[in-house]
Amino acid sequence: MSRTQNGVDHILSEMNEQIHVRKRHQMAPGYSGKDNPELESTMDVYIAKFVHLVRSRYLSTPYCAKSFDIGEKAQFLAVDVINAIGLGELLGDLDNDEDWFEYVKQMRIGLRINRILTSFGFTWRTPSGLGRVLRHCRVRIQERAKSGLREQSDMLTSFVRHGLTPEDLVHEVILQLIAGADTTSTAIRCVILHLLTHPPVYKKLQDEVDAAVAAGKAPTPPRIITAAEAKSLPYLQACIKESMRIHPPITSTFPKRVPDSGNTVIVDGKSVFLPPGTNVGYSVYALHRDRRTYGEDVDEFRPECWLLGKDQARLSAMNKTHDTTFGYGRYQCLGKPIAEMEISKAIFELMRNFDLSLARPENPWKQENVLGLFFHEDLLVHAVDRVQGATA
Ligand code: HEM
């Protein structure tokens, strides 16, 4: 991934192996929640706001249908969550039901500009776009530094405790927004779209959700399902993996450079020498549409394929391939547990609280891929309340 400022690396653009390893070491405790015990409860606050926003402003009734872009609300959720857990900031997209600080708008402008410039080998910051977001992060980090960063238990505090400098923090925080907010909200949108276009799957998942609630395997509202409880629901997890298989949330090839000694790898059983300096990337689409891994119906959305308990060898290959959605090995996404937690909680709570349907089935969303990230618009749905007596 390209830098957000000329000459300055964040962890994802860092090509010096030693620095990359050191940074991972410094940042992993903040990402894993080890240094940040309030990560899940903070996320729950925003999942609850997400549900509240739909319930308070967008419910349809038998007498009046109200369409709204649930993809936009998922984006607000992801931006609010990253800001809260990463920057310790209450941004308020969900509270205000708008792109409050124009993060989404500015980020999209910045990425669209960079799409053109990176083709010529440049990066550029505009006064709006990424430049504006960078400025905001810098100010916010300075404010936090003045108010005694070491006192709180969040990611920023953890990064400082493990030796990141204030300038490092600016670029790591902006990376979190770019790498974490669009990807996670895209994943939520993809699950929603695939559920809404496959009624038997939708019904089966809602049955699993209702059964979990009836059996006390999920807390009663307004409490939010825990990450551990959501992880134990096999069909929910199968629906999420299958949606991300059919539509990976990010499609960049994330090239890695072969070291100066060169490297020999095995491809289809044959030994292949890779010369020093070669860039090796991967196509996440191709990996997830490989018939040898997923079978003949690889192009179809079928969550049941993840529940083939009897074929452990195939399942293991599928799971390994699924992991590549988040990169591989020592480069793997640091935010994977956070993303998985957020997607699972958001989908569970939507299914528990609302009956959703597509408002424009003939044209369910507008999609654009910019530098591997997806921008979606107009995922218009109707939401009917399922919870008797719930109040907005
Ligand atoms: C569905 C959601 C997400 C997907 C699909 C995803 C995917 C990826 C991928 C493919 C990589 C690149 C691995 C490589 O270089 O080979 C990556 C790296 C990274 N992601 Fe994510 N990501 C997601 C969510 C998040 C979130 C929520 C955060 C932050 C809270 C985050 C933070 C990072 C960071 C810091 C790296 C750099 C890791 C490194 O270079 O060591 N990601 N992600």
UniProtKB/TrEMBL annotation:
Q: Which residues form a coiled coil?
A: none
Q: What keywords appear on the UniProt entry? A: Heme, Iron, Metal-binding
Please name the SUPFAM superfamilies in this protein's record: Cytochrome P450
TM segment ranges: none
InterPro entries from the xrefs?
Answer: Cyt_P450, Cyt_P450_E_grp-I, Cyt_P450_sf, Cytochrome_P450_monoxygenase
**Name of the featured protein:** Cytochrome P450
User: Which species does this protein come from?
Assistant: Remersonia thermophila
**Lineage of origin:** Eukaryota, Fungi, Dikarya, Ascomycota, Pezizomycotina
